[in-house]
Amino acid sequence: MASLNAIAKKLVASGKGILAADESEGTIAKRFALIGLPVTLETRRDYREMLFRSTEAMTDYISGVILTEETLEQKAKDGTPFRELFNATDVIPGIKVDRGALPMPGSKDEKITEGLDGLRQRLAHYAKLGAGFAKWRGVIAITSYAPSRNGIRANAHALARYAMYCQEAGIVPVVEPEVLADGEPGDHSIQRCEDVTGETLEAVFKELRLAGVDLSGMLLKPNMVTPGLRSRDRVSTEEVAQRTVETLRRFVPAAVPGIAFLSGGQSDEEATAHLSAMNQLGGLPWALTFSYGRALQTSALVTWNGEDQNVKAAQKAFTHRAKMNALAALGQYKPELDLAA
Ligand code: 13P
């Protein structure tokens, strides 16, 4: 069996990144609403099959895919298990194991992620099915009340417990503390995002160390440091890159092999340009790549539109986006490449 460090390094191999396709039923319903498509077992399968059969993207630019439990066990329309498609393109299947974020007791505006009960048994099952890595997302909201120190601490603690269970099962934990980008404009400047992201990462690594997590056998999946999505502040690509990398340098130990960002509601091009600008800074102790959901999928979803006849065009759109992000992981993306597409 490959070591945790070997799996983690393969996931952040040069010029590759992760496709997050682990939308819960509620989240995929929001995405399908964009194209007015009803959510059924079949529509979810057909949509994801379109992505997973994008052979060029999956072979050249994608190292791993985060799945839901449903997809990990699912078969393509012709009966081929999805897992066989991943084997054929040397993509590592991963699994989202948290059970979602629920309102935190005794707290205003905050959530705590659930799913630790029974996790050891579930992970043993996922390992048998071939999952090489897992994901757990804790969410930290920015409001006039939040986050509180207790909210950050509780989420950091849950992430550390989850990470230990994963490593015990031989599965690489992707640790995702997401500072949400949807705060009220007055609450959510880039400075506030930087402060909250720093405080969160500090708490997360404190808990990971306390729990005894092997930092060389995990990946971090953070937000970038940006103004809130509704903020009127306009900041340059370089400022986002610099502030994000400075914050990570302050709080993320060099023993962590890689950092794979979430896109968090950024436009496709922004998410790509920010990642590329960070990699252009050079001299980084960890690999920096993508683990995007929306910023990898939206153009493909809209092109597909729920119709078989659009599968090829949708795969082309997905492959283009994956390629742009793969270039960004090398610091080689240029906006002109998107204009030319
Ligand atoms: P987005 O890139 O759409 O933010 O999703 C990534 C993810 O996995 C969130 O948990």
From TrEMBL:
Q: Which GO terms describe its biological process?
A: glycolytic process
Q: State whether keyword Lyase applies.
A: yes
Q: What class of enzyme is it?
A: lyase
Query: Might you give the EC number(s) for this enzyme?
Result: 4.1.2.13
Q: Where are the transmembrane segments?
A: none
UniProt KW keywords: Glycolysis, Lyase
Which reaction(s) does the protein catalyse, per the Swiss-Prot or TrEMBL entry? beta-D-fructose 1,6-bisphosphate = D-glyceraldehyde 3-phosphate + dihydroxyacetone phosphate
Could you tell me which InterPro entries the record lists for this protein?
Answer: Aldolase_TIM, FBA_I
Matching Pfam families: Glycolytic
Pathway(s) it belongs to? Carbohydrate degradation; glycolysis; D-glyceraldehyde 3-phosphate and glycerone phosphate from D-glucose: step 4/4
Iron-sulfur: is it a keyword of this entry? no
Alphabetically, the GO molecular function entries are: fructose-bisphosphate aldolase activity
Instruction: Describe the family membership recorded for this protein in Swiss-Prot or TrEMBL.
Output: Belongs to the class I fructose-bisphosphate aldolase family.
The protein's matches in PANTHER family, at most eight in alphabetical order, are given as: FRUCTOSE-BISPHOSPHATE ALDOLASE (PTHR11627)
NCBIfam families documented for this protein = FrucBisAld_I
Q: What is this protein called?
A: Probable fructose-bisphosphate aldolase class 1
Where is the organism placed in the taxonomic lineage, from the top? Bacteria, Pseudomonadati, Pseudomonadota, Alphaproteobacteria, Hyphomicrobiales
